[in-house]
Amino acid sequence: ATPTALMVGTGRGAQLGILIRGPEVLESTRRVDTVVLDKTGTVTTGRMKLQQVYVVDGAAEKDVLRLAGALEHASEHPIAQAIAVGAQERTGDLPAVEHFANVPGRGVRGHVDGHEVTVGRFLEVLPDELARAKSAAEAEGRTAVVVARDGVALGVLTVADAIKETSAEAVRELRALGLTPVLLTGDNRAVAQAVARAVGIDSADVMAEVLPEDKVDVVKRLQSEGRTVAMVGDGVNDAAALATADLGLAMGTGTDAAIEASDLTLVRGDLRVAADAIRLSRRTLATIK
Ligand code: ADP
Ligand code: MG
What we know:
- By secondary structure, this protein is of the alpha/beta class.
- It folds into two domains: 3-45 and 162-288, Rossmann fold (3-Layer(aba) Sandwich); 49-160, 3-Layer(aba) Sandwich (Calcium-transporting ATPase, cytoplasmic domain N), CATH 3.40.1110.
- The protein is 42% helix and 24% strand.
- The protein is built from twelve helices and 13 strands.
- It has helices spanning 3-16, 25-29, 39-43, 61-72, 78-91, 128-139, 167-176, 189-199, 215-224, 239-244, 256-261, 272-288; strands at residues 18-20, 34-38, 49-55, 98-103, 107-112, 115-120, 143-149, 152-160, 180-184, 206-207, 229-233, 247-251, 264-266.
- It has a seven-stranded mixed beta sheet, with helices on both faces. A six-stranded antiparallel beta sheet has the order 3-8-7-6-5-4.
- Strand 12 (247-251), helix 11 and strand 13 form a beta-alpha-beta unit.
- It is elongated, with a radius of gyration of 21 Å.
- The structure holds adenosine-5'-diphosphate (ADP) and magnesium ion (MG).
- Magnesium ion (MG) binds at residues 38, 40-42, 233-235, 238.
């Protein structure tokens, strides 16, 4: 590949809304056969909204919302922001939190009024009524988190996130280029399958409930199977996987950590541009050969 032709490809990339770390990046896109897509913020908008509140007998909806809102107020996760904003709208001022801790891939914990409160996925077993509400929401693609006090479940909150309008078309375009799309997420299996179905990813190619530190292992495993892997992500928890993939693509709307770990940045956060990037590099390299 001559440097001049690669520079031309780089310039064309900028016009398409693709920032390329260096011209040599285009070379590695050529052999890519698998595209791993993060769910939240990549396939979906990541702008979540609080939907339903389910509480156990004896617990008040307002109290459960205040506890959850207070903890989530201190976290930057899209789920957290939805809950903090929703709780504030519905209940007003939120109580103070002590000993706050963010537990990646699980949720948040801290003390409110002297009790330990958790929000997220910490409990293995739930009372029947909450378990049913949670499964029903997840089957429809909503994310459900459990609010517990001193280890006792008080309620379930559901948040929903819209699938980007361009995601289904992007998946079609990636397939047309001969690539296999894989969905990777820390979210629940049922939620992930509902999103995969909506955008056209095979159910066998959905990897759900993957902890942030394990996302990189999914990429390594695919590579050890002989695949050449592109990864598209937006979050801090995607950074290691983006850096390990043969080609890392960050959403320009995502976190700095994701952008810094990537070879390419899709400026507008439109997944269709991932297909443009691969098409562009193939064309650039074909011109050179
Ligand atoms: P993704 O891979 O889709 O970006 P994460 O790895 O960030 O998702 O989170 C995985 C799961 O952990 C979420 O679906 C949720 O159940 C739980 N979780 C993470 N952060 C929080 C939080 N701040 N509050 C409640 N639950 C959380
Ligand atoms: Mg994400």
